[in-house]
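Journal club prep — side note

Before the paper discussion, L.F. wants everyone to see what a predicted structure for a comparable chain looks like in token form. Sequence:
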Amino acid sequence: MFILGEYHYSRGMGRYICIYYGSFMRLFSHYTEDRLKARLRETLLHEFTHHLESLAGEKGLEIQDAIDLEKYRRRYKKPSQ
């Protein structure tokens, strides 16, 4: 599993989005420039939605991300666990 981006909020640093270059390059280095830009745009929009929801006191996308992560964990859970 790779993290492509994260939305952060802290009192000291404020609100910001981190995009992880290494994850993008590991997953999408074979993409054309246009496809790579589209994937980056998709990730930025996702993280910006987290930002807007945090300003509005909403957690819909955060909840959906947690559901998706749990589905991923169940799908790839090792048999011994």
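L.F.'s comment for the group: The two ends are 18 Å apart (CA to CA). Keep this in mind when we get to the figures.
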